[in-house]
Structure formats: C-alpha cells, structure tokens
Input
Amino acid sequence: MPAAADMVAITSDQWALAQIPSYSGNLQIPVSGTTIQYPARFYCDKNTPCSVFDMWGYLSAPTSPAIGDLYAITPAQYADRLLNPRNQYYNAATGQLADYVPPPVVIPLKTQATSAMVWIQQQANLASAMGQVFTVDMKAYVKAIAAIASGTDTTSTALPAQPANVMTASSPAS
Output
C-alpha cells in the first residue's frame, strides 16, 4: 500500500459521487499528483447550448475540457439531461441548467419582399396564360412589394397582406 502522503484524499461528497455508476461503464477519477482534477465529477461547458460531462467517466483526462471552461452541475442535473435530451445552458445566476430557446430568426423586410416577388411572378404567368388580368388590389400589392424589394419604400415595417382576389377575366376582344 502506498504511503499516506502519496494517496489522494477525497471528501465524503466525492465518495458519494464515486458510488454513482458511470454511464460510459468506465469510472476513473483523474488526478494530478494528489489533486483530483475534476472534484465535482459532473460538469457542463460554457457554450449555449451546453454539453454535459461525467469527467470521471473518461479514459483519458488530457483530451477533456479544462476545468476553467466548465461549470459544476449536480448528479441529478446530469442524469436529467441524459434521460431528457434537450438544448440547455448554464444559468450562472441560479447555478442551474435551464432550457435554451434560441432567439427567433428575423428575416429582413426587404428579403421577405424579394421572396413575395416570386409568388407575384407566378401569378402574372398564370394570368397571362389564362387571358386574365390583375385586380386593382393585386396591382396595388405588386407596387407595394416592388417598392419594398427595391428599397424605395424604407418606412414599411411589414408586408401588405396578399389580396384575396388576384385575377379578373379580361374583356373579350371585339
């Protein structure tokens, strides 16, 4: 048996952590000299969303994240994350993992208008093929969308609603 000075002392909390089975099937407490490198065992990284780690479940600590790049989490938080996979982040104010909801993607109005021009072109092709013409409401819609798409209209904050009636029959030729 090694001398006491060469052994790693663990706390009662760390002993309790060692009793939790490893999900990887491997349980090695990484040490450097007589210091436990990851004393809290379960961690998440500082990314949003974050990854979670059982640092005692790795075969090799040198490939593991630096402890300064991690937040300690509880065994319950780790187990919950494995049983209920989802995007989370570490809320440093509460010391808890919280569900991460990405911010909505905002599509610029000019881009929306450019996309709406594709639908307008399809409607124009249909009208032409069927011998019909745009309604007054559709003509106003086309002008409004074109102004936004070209950048002429810089005050609008939303696209106008598509008109309910797009085409009307053209007058028969005499």
